[in-house]
Write a structure and sequence with these properties.
Helix content is about 20%, strand content about 25%.
Length: about 375
């Protein structure tokens, strides 16, 4: 019986998915009578048609991938399984390296796969059609003793962490339950604005955020206690850790157990070191922070899905130095600030920007000390970028 959830969809492909072979030197060939063109035999009713391999739209059998429950994810599709070969099997993408992906099947065998051309040429806002954490169907093949395959279908996604990169959607990881937002007390210094951006993205995507402040052995934590209290009062779990002394590592290990998680944060905050402390069998590469600018050196170069020995999966991601929100409008950002949201409906004007208007409940709450000034300034900075 056919699956009624799949239907015929008219989808748009990328521009110039095929290119005509361009012939040069037409003028010289015409003057030398080398083209063979007979002017008097040319038909006036002939025209160039857009049909054929150069057409930009095509009908496929599939369904749209709905990532956000309200807006969806424009331009993403999954192909009907009957269009793929009968030997297709389910798997999960462990990492993406250029044109190739490492895919693990249900038995734990890892295949080096490429993506079906139909998927790669669909017009989409994404930088890449397959990302780490994707659940896919692929057709396997044994080539010269190597396990290889072709990804035929991408399953609908849930729990995707994304940002804006060159005006396109950069999906960092997908199909995760929770995100560990790692920051460091020093080397590099803690950036509350980056944490706020990640919190807004996680809340919108339905991912449970956990704030992890690492390297607490390098300095005094007391100046950051008020900020930690602000996050805790909003319902966010905050964990203090140190890989050098082992402080807080066991608590973080329990939070990762039997869950699908992602570690994200600046370069050099110790994401790979934390994973090595949690599970020594991972043996991830680590490097020291630069003494010149106190920034990380991008030891991790690609997002990689790792299986924990205690159960569950975790994704180690490259360091983030800039995080711009994807597909947000300024008016909706305040709704994802848990501390500002209760005051939003108390403003005098329904379209209040909480910046210069009179009788603004948000501004009054900041002035009265009910809202943290740093969080309010973080909201204004985020709002200006949209």
């Amino acid at each position: 019986m056919a699956d009624k959830s799949f239907q015929k969809l008219r989808v748009e492909f990328r521009r110039n998915r095929n290119t005509r072979t361009r012939v040069n030197d037409w003028t010289r060939k015409y003057e030398n009578d080398e083209t063979g063109v007979q002017e008097d035999l040319t038909s006036g009713d002939e025209r160039i048609s857009g049909k054929g391999e150069l057409v930009r739209k095509r009908t496929i059998v599939g369904t749209r991938l709905e990532v956000d429950s309200e807006k969806g994810d424009r331009g993403d599709f999954t192909i009907h399984p009957e269009t793929a070969a009968g030997r297709s099997r389910p798997g999960r993408v462990l990492s993406v390296h250029g044109l190739y992906c490492r895919v693990e099947d249900e038995s734990g065998t890892v295949f080096t796969c490429v993506t079906r051309r139909l998927l790669k040429t669909i017009s989409t806002d994404q930088r890449q059609i397959v990302v780490t954490g994707d659940k896919v169907y692929f057709r396997d093949a044994l080539v010269q003793g190597r396990q290889e395959g072709i990804i035929e279908r991408v399953e609908p996604r849930q729990g995707s962490l994304s940002r804006t990169s060159r005006n396109r959607k950069h999906l960092i990881v997908t199909n995760v339950d929770q995100a560990i937002l790692v920051a460091s007390l020093q080397e590099p210094y803690l950036k509350p604005n980056l944490i706020d951006r990640l919190l807004v993205t996680c809340d919108r995507s339905g991912i449970r955020p956990i704030i992890c402040i690492n390297k607490v052995d390098l300095g005094d934590v007391s100046p950051w206690i008020p900020l930690i209290g602000v996050y805790s009062q909003m319902g966010y779990k905050v964990v203090l850790t140190s890989t050098k002394t082992g402080f807080g590592v066991e608590r973080l290990r329990r939070l990762l157990c039997h869950r699908s998680s992602v570690l994200t944060g600046q370069s050099g905050v110790g994401k790979s070191s934390l994973l090595n402390a949690i599970d020594s069998s991972l043996a991830l590469r680590v490097r020291e922070v630069s003494d010149v600018n106190q920034k990380g050196k991008h030891t991790t170069t690609t997002a990689e899905l790792l299986r924990l020995s205690g159960g569950g999966y975790v994704v180690d991601t490259p360091g983030i130095r800039q995080f711009s929100l994807w597909d947000f409008v300024p008016e909706e950002i305040v709704g994802y600030y848990r501390d500002l949201r209760p005051y939003e409906n108390l403003c005098r004007f329904p379209d209040c920007t909480h910046r210069h208007e009179e009788s603004c409940a948000v501004k009054n709450a900041v002035a009265d000390g009910h809202l943290d000034l740093g969080r309010y300034e973080s909201y204004l900075s985020m709002n200006d970028e949209q």
